[in-house]
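[agent] plan:
  1. take the single chain provided in the ticket
  2. run structure prediction with default settings
  3. attach structure tokens to the ticket
  4. add a short note for the reviewer (M.T.)
[agent] executing step 1
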Amino acid sequence: FSSSSPSGWRIINSNSNSNTMLPRHSIGKMVVGVVFAALVWGATAKHVSGLMESGEWRFMSKFCFNGPKSNPGILKIKAETDIDGHKLGLYSDESFSWPKVYGVDIPCQKKLQAEERLPNGTYVCPSGFCPCKKTPWDIPSKQSYKTETDVSQTQRPHFWYMAAAHCDSEINLWYDLHFINSGSGWDEEFSCDEQGLLTMYIFFFCLFFVGTIVHLYGVQSLRRAQAWHAVVKLLTCSVVLQLLSLFLYLIHYSVYSQNGYGAPGVKGLATVLDASSQLVFIVLLVVLGKGWTISKTTLDQKKLLLILFALYTFTYFAFFVWVVAGQDEASTTYVYESPPGIVIVCLRVITLIWFLYCIIPTHNQENDPAKRKFFKFLASIYSIWFLALPVMVAIAALLSPWVRFKTVTGITLCITSLAMGVLGFLLWPTRASQYFRISAPELLAGSTAYDEL
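[agent] step 2 finished; step 3 output follows
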């Protein structure tokens, strides 16, 4: 069937064959699935499968198909059950569809009755925003069910939500859903809100790889001069952690582009490394703001610094757990709008205040013109870095869900690259001697103040 409407989408070419047996996964996909099922991060792929054994009506997965200038999207459905009466429903993100049924306390049958039946047996939603075909899909018992549907949208990208229902008893259904944005090259496995991430991570990994090589060359020069300062060590640690994080993200999205599953556990590890890189970078900026190894040889308020680091660590851990176990997969809310995300944003603002509280007196007490210039530049540039996260959260709230994640990710990676690149430039061996108070090799050797961090 084919239909179009002013509301902006149509579903065409739905072919069903209830007698076709399901093909088995290839050995390669089985290996990937077994390996990464053992890791903690839950699957976020757009090729999803599983077994539902409870509830009358349950969310299965969501996907954002591309807008009007692209090829029709493809939805492939496979299902098996031993019980009659199972149905699968496809809902749009329009106000009269998914929001009317999800999280709303209404009977199961009402959730399936989003259409008005016409005399010819077709189903049409209010405002003509429904496929000109019979929905929901009825799943026969004791045989393999397979269907494929093309989705074309004429206005903007839409999120589509799949749900399973058995209104007479509880659901007992095995399913396999595969969403494809056809004609999108290596992005076809990606939802519209994630398209471009693979290209983005390829670019930033290459950028960080080159930058890390250059930085390590400078580190080697400092090591030969026995002047590898603790603050440079912190920067090196942050840069290497960020590089490893980008590499693991690249692995995940590269695998994802091939099979729609990705490497979820690797992605989880990448998130941990990214958070660790940020923590180390924050500590580095605070100790620089205090003038440690630049204007003074001792580090004061160490307990307060330790408390701050512990708060960040605990909050990032809570954030990670929330994303893995507590995040509603059906929601399009930005992750930093979650309770632990809000705490992280607040901590970033508090750290900015403390950073300025430390660096302003340090600047005022410094008599060396080069060091005063360094502190002034540091305060100006990295105040913006501290504010970047709260500003990005505010911007994310204004963006459409189908562009939010990839836009925020791209801007965040740009800001991170600039922040680390600028600090690496400032602490390059030919400039480091202008700033560091502990610069002579004989002073470095065995210095407690140098190693106390």
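[agent] step 4 note for reviewer: The two ends are 69 Å apart (CA to CA).
[agent] ticket updated
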